[in-house]
């Protein structure tokens, strides 16, 4: 059977009808609202650190030359989206072969774990944490869109879900630095610890709700049409574009 242009691994022709997360009585279930928070958490993990990078690169204030300091700030800013760019196709390939729901939940837990120690580690470890955080974010947002697509009851519902998910990505961009400022005031040595706890809480909530395993309308024979090229490009570059404005010049 083919779902949205991609064949599912294994036999899905007789798969059970699964409408977890689908709209009922005109209301979205709690699982979709948790999914919105997951999208916001993924983008907040990128923007929250940016204001602290200059101090994190050179905590001794003067140990690095000006050119080396600027290089590391720019590199640490770029390594997160670069890791996301390289890892996204890998997560897509894996999601075709394993349960995407486990991947989505694991990615949130990993993002929380690599966000918490920021401020407590040295420069090499900071690069590694940023790299892993980018890889985790590359799984969360696309798999969130996949989950929303599976739960949608039709094209209109799918469009509404995609719109809200994209809006919460931008909300995460906005909220990330604000939450980090509050966190830094409480825990100055670990400025992202409170944000990490919030991301972990979202991951725990995602483990407690039911997410759709299959595309229910597709199993019923009413395949949702494939998105147009324009819609695909917007979904691909929309979450990435706003982050470019934070890159240092």
From TrEMBL:
Residue ranges crossing the lipid bilayer per the database entry: 32-53, 73-95, 102-121, 127-152, 164-186, 192-211
Keywords assigned by UniProt, alphabetized: Cell membrane, Membrane, Plasmid, Transmembrane, Transmembrane helix, Transport
Pfam families: MFS_1
Primary localization class, coarse: membrane
Keyword Membrane: yes
Subcellular location: Cell membrane
Bilayer topology term: Multi-pass membrane protein
Region (Disordered): 1-22
GO annotations of cellular component type: plasma membrane
Molecular function as annotated in GO: transmembrane transporter activity
Name under which the protein is recorded: MFS transporter
Organismal lineage: Bacteria, Pseudomonadati, Pseudomonadota, Alphaproteobacteria, Sphingomonadales
């Amino acid at each position: 059977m083919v779902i949205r242009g991609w064949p599912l691994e294994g036999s899905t022709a007789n798969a059970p009808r699964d409408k977890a997360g689908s709209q009922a009585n005109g209301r979205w279930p709690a699982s979709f609202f948790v999914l919105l928070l997951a999208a916001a958490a993924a983008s907040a993990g990128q923007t929250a650190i940016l204001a602290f990078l200059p101090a994190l690169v050179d905590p001794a204030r003067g140990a690095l030359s000006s050119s080396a300091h600027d290089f590391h700030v720019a590199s640490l800013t770029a390594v997160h989206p670069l890791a996301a760019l390289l890892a996204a196709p890998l997560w897509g390939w894996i999601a075709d072969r394993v349960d995407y729901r486990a991947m989505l939940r694991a990615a949130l837990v990993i993002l929380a774990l690599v966000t918490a120690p920021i401020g407590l580690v040295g420069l090499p470890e900071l690069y590694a944490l940023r790299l892993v955080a980018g890889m985790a974010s590359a799984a969360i947002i696309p798999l969130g869109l996949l989950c929303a697509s599976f739960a949608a009851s039709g094209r209109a519902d799918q469009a509404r879900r995609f719109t809200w998910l994209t809006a919460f990505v931008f909300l995460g961009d906005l909220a990330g630095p604000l939450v980090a400022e509050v966190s830094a005031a409480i825990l100055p040595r670990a400025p992202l610890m409170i944000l990490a706890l919030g991301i972990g809480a979202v991951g725990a909530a995602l483990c407690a709700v039911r997410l759709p395993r299959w595309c229910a309308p597709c199993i019923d024979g009413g395949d949702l049409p494939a998105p147009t090229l324009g819609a695909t490009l917007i979904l691909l570059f929309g979450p990435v574009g706003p982050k470019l404005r934070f890159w240092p010049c």
